[in-house]
Structures are given as C-alpha cells and as structure tokens.
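Researcher: Please translate sequence to structure tokens.
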Amino acid sequence: MNNINKIIKAIDEELERTCKSYLTPSEANIMLEENHILKDRSERSGLPLRRILRQGRIPYAFQTGGKNTEWRIPHSKSQNTLSADDNSKNNLDPMTIEEINNKKTVPSGIEMFKSIEAIEKAGYKGFTTTKDLAISECKDVPKVKGIYFVLNTIEKCHFLTESVGGHFKKKNPTVALSELKSNWVEDTIVIYIGQAGGGKSNATLYSRLKQYMKFGQGQPVGHWGGRLIWQLRNHKDLLICWKTTPEEDPRLIEKNLIHDFTKLYSKRPYANLRG
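Model: Translation complete:
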C-alpha cells in the first residue's frame, strides 16, 4: 500500500472514530505523524499534507473559499466512488479502492448533536453543570481558545417569563415566550454553540465561560450571546462541554458547526441567534 493510500485510510478511520465531518490539514498531519505515516512540520503544522492537497492527490478535499483559503478533508465516502482517473492520479491499488467503496457510510459530524456519547467521541471534555461551573468559578476549564457546547438533557423544556441573566448596559435579556418557543429545536441536546479566542480575540475558554456563568448569576457582564439559556427553568442543570482548538480559529469552527446543525434541523441551535 503506497503512502497516499495509507493517508486516505488513516484519515477515514480518524473521521469514523471522532464522528467529525472533516479534518483540517493540521489535525490530520498531527494524527498521521503519530501513526508514522507522514512527518509533520513543527514550525508550520500541516504543511506536508497541504502540499499533497495542492497537488490534487486527495481529490475530494476542498478549500472553503477558493485559492489561499482553509482546506477541509472529508471522508473518502463523501463521494460515491473514486473514479478511474482518480485511481490513476493517486496510484491507489484496486484492493484499497474496493475496501473504500465497500465501507459503511461514515457517521456524519451532525450526529454529535444528538448524544453525549457522540460529543465525547468528537473530543469534547467537561460535561459540567452550569451550577457547578459557577460555584467553582470555572477553575477546571482550560485557559486556551476553543469551542463549547451548552447541552440540555431533559426531554421536555419549560421556559421562564423572566430571564435570570444580567442586565448588561441596562438591557433586559428577557425574550418573549413566543420567540423562545419558535427558537426551540427538537431531537437534539445541543442548545448553544459558542467559541472563545476566535479572530483577534484573546479570550480563552476559561475567561469566556466564567463571564457566561456570571451573566447567568444576574451580573451585568458582556456575554449577551447565548442568553436564551438563562430563560430555561432547568438552567442550573444544563451541561457545558468544551474542546480546545490551539491550531485553528474557533470562530471558523463555530461557523461550520452551526452550518451543519442548520442543515440538519433547518434552524440554528436554540440560543444561537446569529449564524
């Protein structure tokens, strides 16, 4: 089995293990180096794999917005089959093509929106109630950038007529019950997707979630996003989980996650008022 063949197989297996929709070159190259398949570059993580992608040797990989934008590497089954031209281009042996085409469909990344088990497989940690996070002042939350989910594990939701959230800049965070009901999404435990440290922000998961918990305690702090969770009767029992993303922009990951969620449910997560 040649090197490209091993790379494709290893990436497919990693996507199946983590239930992700795709890997970035940095994520994939780190994994490939750990498996002694493709050495990474410490000064520019993902560069060896990006060179392979630019050569078109993994033809179903794509860039998010054209030339000079970020690469995404989905499962090889994101296409029905690899064509004969692709086979020749990548020098894949017939046995591997057959193995790829006979694989069961990879679990989609959107499956993580339905169970804690799937979210854990995708690499998320924590799963701590908002009550406990507030009490501990988020002391166990990593002080690095990343993504976080707010999870509701109670089947039936009940809304409060008044939000318990803080009045930041004297603004009342309360939303009409009709709007809350309209925003609610059935058949998912994910009610909010947030990020810390995206773009030029210096925020960390620790600082952002600590701010979020203070807002939920009625303090007038600036965590207006996601405020709808504080109008749920069980707001103290909601779970928070997080995933550090040291090599990627959390803002882009958040955007892609919300896109995947919206594609599945035809609306954004309950407390995500913007995409």
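Researcher: Any highlights?
Model: The beta strands are 22-23, 62-63, 71-74, 125-129, 146-151, 190-196, 239-244.
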